[in-house]
Amino acid sequence: MNRRIVFHLVFAVALLVAGRDTADAQTPARQAASDLSRQLMSPFCPGKLLADCTSPNAGELREAIAGRLTAGETVAAVKSDLVRQYGKEILGAPPAEGVGWLAWLVPGLLGLVSAAGIGWKVAQAVRGAGPAPAVAVAGGADAGALAQLDDELRDLD
Question: pTM here?
Answer without folding.
Answer: 0.47
